[in-house]
Amino acid sequence: MKYKKYLMWAGLILTMCLVGLVTTQPLLIKAIYAKYKSTDQFLTFEGDARIKYEQGAEQYAVTLNNSLDESQKAVEVALGAKFKKPISIYICSSQDVFNEYVYLSKNVRGAVYWGKLFLSPGAFNRGSLAKLTKHELTHYLFYTHLGERAHIEGIPLWFREGIAEFVANGGPKFTQGRSIQRFLSVKERESYLSGSLDFWFTTEDPSDAVSNGTVNWVLYKVGALLVHYLHDLSPQQFEELIKKLLAGQRFEKAVYSEYGRDIQTLRSEFTKYIQNAH
Ligand SMILES: [Zn+2]
């Protein structure tokens, strides 16, 4: 009898915990669901095993096939590193399916989740596919070296997005012979200097980059410009920095050992540089 009573209480508590979890942590539940959601329905593109697509998305697979070699090479050259695992890109047949794997905004067109790279039809209908692919492949290259945890814990969000944009921009040649200040509009410059974007350099919450369902691109832009700035300060130290990060060294330590000062100091220098723009 006593045993039955304990069992009943245990069941009740477990149910309450589950209800609590579902109501307070909907994102966590979606994340767990996404992790275990099967990708078995994706077909492999004939002639390129890197590309997987859902029925109905074959024309997107053909389009991706035309530029993937070039995008992969651009990423490897810009980062001075190779992918440690084969690339797998999953092209979803609809935005809804994409969002079942990637529980971000409906406007997101591509993302690396749980070690897989997903693209939505939007990747092929809006903006530059090559730029998006290079951005996501940069995340993926870091993932193949560091795995999910090391990647999230070792490198701040702004740098992960900034380096992805740096590569998508075409790497060093984007700012070659041009002053970085010129890439910011008057409004963007004012917004950066007002301090209203400062949170971006400390947050670890990707949803901070999204407001009203739309990605706040100015955050990605200033982050990327700081990455370009670090590169242009010393291309050689930058190359070494990337090597150290890919080897698993923590960001702060790697920056300090290469640049001889911490990232806060370097960002202050970047801010002064932006302030002095004419
Ligand atoms: Zn990204």
Sequence stretches where pLDDT stays below 50 over 5 or more residues: none
Main sheet summary: 5 strands, mixed
Distance between the termini: 82 Å
Number of helices: 12
* Distinct ligands, ions and cofactors found in the model: zinc ion
Shape: globular
Strand content: 5-15%
Q: What is the rounded Rg?
A: 21 Å
Give the structural class: alpha/beta
Strands, count:
7
The averaged pLDDT comes out at 91
Helix content: 55-70%
Write the element-wise H/E pattern from the N-terminal end onward. HHEEHEHEEHHHHEEHHHH
Domain Peptidase MA-like: 79-275
Protein name: Peptidase MA-like domain-containing protein
Organism: Marinagarivorans cellulosilyticus
InterPro entries: Peptidase_MA-like_dom (IPR039568)
Structural features, described:
With about 280 residues, the protein is α/β, with parallel strands linked by helices. About 60% of the residues lie in helices and about 5% in strands. It is built from twelve helices and seven strands. The protein has helices at about 1-25, 25-35, 60-80, 95-100, 120-125, 130-155, 155-170, 185-195, 215-235, 235-245, 250-260, 265-275, and strands at about 45, 50-55, 90, 110-115, 115-120, 210, 215. The protein has a five-stranded mixed β-sheet with strand order 1-2-3-5-4, covered by helices on one side. The chain has a two-stranded antiparallel ribbon with strand order 6-7. A hairpin with a 2-residue loop joins β6 (about 210) and β7 (about 215). α6 packs antiparallel against α7 (about 155-170) and α7 crosses α9 (about 215-235). The longest helix is centred in the middle third of the chain and has 26 residues, at about 130-155. It is globular. The relative contact order is 0.09. Zinc ion binds next to α6 and α7.
